[in-house]
Amino acid sequence: MADSEPKASIRMDTVPGASARVHNFIRHIIDADLKTGKYAVRQWSGQPGPGEQQKVGAGDAPQEVPLRDTAKIRTRFPPEPNGYLHFGHAKSICLNFGLAQDYAGACHLRFDDTNPEKEEQEYVDSIIDAVHWLGFDWRFGEETNQYFASNYFQWMYDFAEKLIEAGHAYVDSQSAEEMRASRGTLTEAGKNSPFRTRTPAENLDLFRRMRAGEFADGTHILRAKIDMASGNINLRDPAIYRIRHATHHNTGDAWCIYPMYTYAHPIEDALENITHSICTLEFEDQRPFYDWLLARLAELGCINTPPPQQIEFSRLNLSYVVLSKRKLIHLVEEKHVDGWDDPRLPTLVGARRRGFTPEAFRRFNEMNGVTKSDSWIDISVLEECQREHLNETAPRRIAVLDPLKLIIDNYPEDQEEECLAPNHPQKPDWGKRVVPFSKELWIEREDFMEVPSKGYFRLFPGNSVRLRYGFVIKCLDCDKDAVGNISAVHCEYMPDSKSGTPGSDNYKVKGNIHWVSARHAHAGEIRLYDRLFAVAAPGAEGRDFIADLNPDSKRVISAQLEASLQNAAAEDRFQFERHGYFVADRIDSRPGAPVFNRSVTLKDGWK
Ligand code: ATP
Ligand code: MG
């Protein structure tokens, strides 16, 4: 078997520990933490919660032995359920779940739904599906580890009261403009708010009244009390709670104040006993606040220790696509594509419909490694990963995409016979299948030229080619319709030339073309997808990104398909010989009538 494996198909995803060989600086941090035992003393009740809840032995029945967290590390993937996941999210998913797998840890799926703006069940469901589709799961032993950040609102509120009592937070009643004006600039310190000297008692009273709904949106805000002169603007008394009279999808009208993301996120991590909180580089400037907040909450006994640490990596930038939710929404809403799962979109639902494989996504992310420097990756790298995996896993079939009738004049009308075609050229153990042969066949229109161009060695009058897995034929002439278009090609076949029979090698021909028997083939819809954008950086240099759309990104054709394809089930993947990799569409295919999407061509045609 080993020699029959194509060279290109190194199955990284099946090689244990293979990922460790690829550059990933986060592994060095984790290795060091495991060596020093930094998180080894953490306690964990099995449920997210504040510090005291994690201490087994607290309360009436103290136990001698604290319950240690058996997860060596804890990471999380924290999407906001306000859209469909895209290829950028796949990087974060592969990274967080992959690290947990490799280090005998847990990775939580946390819906970051602290923003009362609309969040929908549809998105929650699609995110769960997408992470599962990529091959990951959030269970760890008995733990389910699927969480909603909005379930932590009460703890977040309680911690805010603790911060106020300790003098670490105050209620500011300046207008938004006043606050902006006193924030300072990169080179200039900010100015203290006149409300900064409010006593903890005053602040607590105001904060409780904010929570009770006494004030309108924007009239007061809770701020951390740090340093208005800090060189890092994020430490100049950042806002941590705002008034927002809005209904939340989970908590309804229970709250009219909501935590800011920068306050909520570190607390979510701490409540869940996360060890390594991995995020994209734009949060680097927030790390000092992340650390400040968790240090104060640890001092106050609110959270488990040691607190989680934030680690930033560079996000995935991919050529020929857009990876911003805002732009993706625009494409869908303005109907430039056929919905979120349009196979041309860089969404995971789109990729699935396109026939991309989760294995190839994981391989792609392993290959790229994880760094702190921003870089662009060409989409052809992802396509090549897909091609490699599909080459290895997709059975071969025959489809004629632009059919032209071929008539074998010396083959009897009522005769037919069987030819044998291998299911995979490098995998003899996959066997062969029968492809029927008869007098009338379909071939590709481009495989015939009445007047051949230089170097053309397929069919033209007087020339011979091999019908792949069948006979050698010699071209005689062609028929034309009333307007002069070629309607059929005539040829004669050599009965002693059948592939696999003795003597078939006696014929030396240059061309080798594919075909299906007209009597046995069936017509089927095929969608030929290409890149959605015609340029590598859509919307660069001030252009409207819509102007960069590729007008030929989708073409629907009717092809002639090998009989066995009629039974293809949704999501079955094939290589159509000479054409590329195709998948039976999971939405539009019907029993006995699959519709095929082209996943990727056989070669990169963009160079
Ligand atoms: P977008 O910027 O497209 O709106 P987002 O980051 O706001 O995406 P979230 O739902 O908050 O969307 O993302 C969930 C996680 O996915 C975050 O931890 C985020 O860092 C990560 N993520 C998003 N885009 C990328 C990317 N291009 N590369 C790597 N990770 C990403
Ligand atoms: Mg976000």
Layout of strands and helices, then pairs:
Blueprint: H1 25-36, H2 51-54, E1 74-77, H3 87-102, E2 106-111, H4 121-133, E3 146-148, H5 153-165, E4 169-172, H6 176-181, H7 200-211, E5 221-224, E6 239-243, E7 257-259, H8 261-271, E8 276-280, H9 287-299, E9 309-313, E10 317-318, H10 325-333, H11 348-354, H12 358-368, E11 376-377, H13 379-393, E12 396-397, E13 399-400, E14 403-408, E15 416-422, E16 432-438, E17 440-444, E18 464-467, E19 472-480, E20 486-493, E21 511-513, E22 516-517, E23 522-529, E24 554-561, E25 573-576, E26 580-584, E27 596-600
Adenosine-5'-triphosphate (ATP) binds next to helix 3 and strand 8.
Q: What does this 3D model show about the protein?
A:
There is one protein chain. This protein has helices spanning 25-36, 51-54, 87-102, 121-133, 153-165, 176-181, 200-211, 261-271, 287-299, 325-333, 348-354, 358-368, 379-393, and strands at 74-77, 106-111, 146-148, 169-172, 221-224, 239-243, 257-259, 276-280, 309-313, 317-318, 376-377, 396-397, 399-400, 403-408, 416-422, 432-438, 440-444, 464-467, 472-480, 486-493, 511-513, 516-517, 522-529, 554-561, 573-576, 580-584, 596-600. With 607 residues, the chain is of the alpha/beta class. The strands form seven sheets. The protein has a seven-stranded mixed beta sheet with strand order 12-25-26-27-23-24-13, with helices on one face. The protein has a seven-stranded mixed beta sheet with strand order 21-18-19-20-14-17-22, with no helix packed on it. Strand 2 (106-111), helix 4 and strand 3 (146-148) form a beta-alpha-beta unit. Helix 3 packs across helix 12 (358-368) and helix 8 (261-271) packs across helix 9. The longest helix is centred in the first third of the chain and has 16 residues, at 87-102. The site of adenosine-5'-triphosphate has 14 residues, from helix 3 and strand 8. The site of adenosine-5'-triphosphate (ATP) has 14 residues, from helix 3 and strand 8.
